[in-house]
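PT: before anyone asks, these are the final sequences, not the draft ones from last week. 700 residues across everything. Please model them as a single complex and drop the result in this thread when it's through.
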Amino acid sequence: MNTQFSPRVWPALFVALATLCSPLCSVLALAEMPSATEVLPSWNDGPAKRAIVDFVKATTDKSNPDFVPPEERIATFDQDGTLWVEHPMYSQVIYCLDRVPALVKAKPELANVEPFKTVLSGNREAMAKLSTHDLEKILFATLTGMTVDTFNAEAKKWTEEAKDSRWKRPYTELTYQPMQEVLSYLRANDFKTYIVTGGGQDFVRVYSVPPEQVVGSAGSTKYSYDQQGKPILTKEPKLLLNDNDAGKPEGIHLMIGRRPIAAFGNSTGDEQMLEYTGAGHGLRLKVLVLHDDAEREYAYGPAQGLPDTKVGAFTQDLYDEAKKDGWVVISMKKDWKCIFGFDSAAQCNK
Amino acid sequence: MNTQFSPRVWPALFVALATLCSPLCSVLALAEMPSATEVLPSWNDGPAKRAIVDFVKATTDKSNPDFVPPEERIATFDQDGTLWVEHPMYSQVIYCLDRVPALVKAKPELANVEPFKTVLSGNREAMAKLSTHDLEKILFATLTGMTVDTFNAEAKKWTEEAKDSRWKRPYTELTYQPMQEVLSYLRANDFKTYIVTGGGQDFVRVYSVPPEQVVGSAGSTKYSYDQQGKPILTKEPKLLLNDNDAGKPEGIHLMIGRRPIAAFGNSTGDEQMLEYTGAGHGLRLKVLVLHDDAEREYAYGPAQGLPDTKVGAFTQDLYDEAKKDGWVVISMKKDWKCIFGFDSAAQCNK
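LR: through. Structure below.
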């Protein structure tokens, strides 16, 4: 019997069962209902789910030698590819490209200047060929030069209106339901959860609550006064923290000042964060998400023979380090019953 | 009747009263007992205490138009001179000077190099004449170059062992009892309290819990591996954030990402933090501590004719801005019944 039906479809199912089955059959159906208190309901039972649950049980049980006091229960999560979709391109890059027309409207002299001219043309093939240097120009032009308040308002509007091309939904809905369950499960067990992202700290803060628990690549701001004498903070084109690779543990120290006891990532940019987490005393949880589900999301590695990518690469070296050091590797295909909260209720075991 | 007796002396007092007084007298005594729920007990009733209490009542009462949801109740506190003593010199500078002998032991070639030679001599007059550049050399030499873990251990040991020359107590005990009561009062009302210090973030984190709620002047760290291949973070001599003056609102944005609704300081270095706090929508609390109590602590301004100082100056301009913009100025002499937690219980109304 399929046990993945949502509570919402149970009443109809019961009518059908009552008609077709003997009373014994109904009792069996009840016995297989997912428990209301089941943790991580959209996860299949398997080594990944067991590792997460075992870790939380051990670190929160006072009688366990691996018990960790609540104030030290810090868990860090990469954002792109770990909490939400990063393919075919990081959402923040799409935001920056989407901002170019408004930027050119404000500064018409940019219309014939590269790389803005190419972006305005809408030619996707040409845009895909933009160099890293071109992309940096676009990022600085669309993410700096305005006040913090103006940026927040613009980015918030975008997250509410823009939709991705595959699922036709706001990007904020493209978060992985099983990972949201992990976040909730940890918080319910007095963990303080942080997003530690290579993306822009201010950008991710716009849709992540609370903002003080977002560590990301951050530029400096400049304090001054507007024409009415009101204090303002302006975003400057100067990078303070590149929160990728070694920048992740460095950013964690800068912003949190404690070593995490659990860390979740999905790419080589998360390797040092997981190593740093693992190097502390006591039980530690290090987890990587492997995108091996081309049908329900995307498939890329290049670990395990998956297609190579420039966006969120998970190399075979990283896979080997994970296996050697006892890191958990989540197979999206095998470990997750569903991918998104908007998947059918039955898939997500709701 | 003196109502400043601590609950600890009440039993003895009752015996005395029962012997000397009529039953009516005992009832009167009870009526004048400080209530167990009295807030800010070591504050004298006056405009400063009333402003703090009124602000907390207004922002936490759902029926009040100035109500603020708990997640937005951010209060920031300067450290030196606002939460603890900063005269005759900032504690962190004393820490750095105290570290010089150990530094020279590890690097004997520094013994005859200035400014280390002067510090080693112990000649206080010569040390007082060290230039800012000399002091910077000492700060960089004693605060960087080691791993984060080594620094934390050294600084923690110092805070446990070192004693100030006037009160002969660990520096961490030189915190103002009335301000500790404000911190507790705010936290009890679901405020998240942050220290926002010009001092070193890592240094202040050593004795401030939780470390993730300390924003301070911060240097970069460098992630690498030790000889055993274990990940380490090393403190680098590169300043990322000078958390003074305009650096305070900039640091608040970097580390917290929300504008405070209440801010406490004591010097010109806090001016921009208070302005930035005040520039948000809705009710805001801006508070400055004026050190006008030479007898119980120190007296310095130069506002209001107090002696001038290079350590935590409170200028007349700042005083005038405070009065003009409705900021609260705390007079240590008039507003505080006691200064420290180790003052007599009666003084502190305990």
